[in-house]
Amino acid sequence: MTKVPLLLSPLVSPRFPSPARALQPPCARRRAVTAAGAGLVQEAAMSEAAALVANGEYPCPVSPPYPAVSKDVELRRAMTASARSGAYASAAVVFEDEWLSVVDKPAGVYCDALLSALPCYAAAAAGDPATKPNLHLANRLDRDTSGLMVITKCNKVAAKLVKAFTEHKVKKTYLALCIGYPPTWEKIRICSGHGRSKHGAWRVYAMSDVGRTLPGGSSVRDMSTKFEVLGINGKGQFREPSNVNIDDIESITVQEKAADHSSTDDLKNHMILVRAYPQSGRTHQIRLHCQYLGFPIRGDVKYGGVIEWNGVDCDGHALHSESLSFVHPVTGLPITFRAPLPSWANEVISTMG
């Protein structure tokens, strides 16, 4: 097993308020004071937490924080996704029976928009409201992630499927197009910690920190992902998902910050197509592990991905939920579903050979 290595504001006399303050109604001044106070409280809390991390009282993340540019990019993408979600009217159904539906979510649409876009929901809405199915999202995908989602139609089935997802009994594969340093391995398994402090971002932590408490009261949890490289710079061969045996591949246990690639900057712009097999279901798991391994997902600005590639701005990250396999919660039969490939995946695969 390989181990990878507070400025005070000027005092203003209440007898001679500033012109701006004098023009503000009392309620506006109260809101401004409240907002400013909340901001100072949060800033103080974050500073205190950082100090405790530095002193070793809290675990220190081994992946970087969100870059400053991500704030504006994420806001713009969120506004676009809100508009798209509001106009989304017809979900692409991959499979449907009386208990559940499997749908192909497009990128740039929020998960909840799929519920009212299901044909069965629209048909019931046009008739008797009492016949509307009791729809639940059994799993979720990030806003910009495309691919398979399961929607159940009754509480009993929902409980069973949510339990299956929570207990990692649902087998999943994802495709990701990454830009970064080319891996020297074909298949690998990475194990690390995962967590977020009260006011922070999701980060990778060392495996030795799993179970330790973070600022805000949450704790570091374990996460594990298996990867296989399908192609680098158009060279490779696309193949169907396989049963990647853990005993047959190299395993990385994260214990420290990622390797410094600054001396090999000429290699940082390779285009890498990978398939991910998440063994746990942590938030942003695949995105975090791709960042840690040195090849962030294209367009994933939060986690170091490029904003522009080949002269074109990325309007989201290139991550696709490719397949789902699970036991049907009612019939007990094993079922597997595959989603159609997104355009970016088809473009890359067409150049491989």
Automatic annotation (TrEMBL):
The keyword RNA-binding applies. The keyword RNA-binding applies. Keywords: RNA-binding. GO terms for molecular function: pseudouridine synthase activity; RNA binding. Residues 101-291 form the Pseudouridine synthase RsuA/RluA-like domain. One of its GO terms (biological process) is enzyme-directed rRNA pseudouridine synthesis. It catalyses: a uridine in RNA = a pseudouridine in RNA. InterPro entries: PsdUridine_synth_cat_dom_sf, PsdUridine_synth_RluA-like_CS, PsdUridine_synth_RsuA/RluA, RluA_PseudoU_synthase. Transmembrane segments: none annotated. Pfam families: PseudoU_synth_2 (PF00849). This is Pseudouridine synthase RsuA/RluA-like domain-containing protein. It comes from Brachypodium distachyon. The gene is LOC100828441.
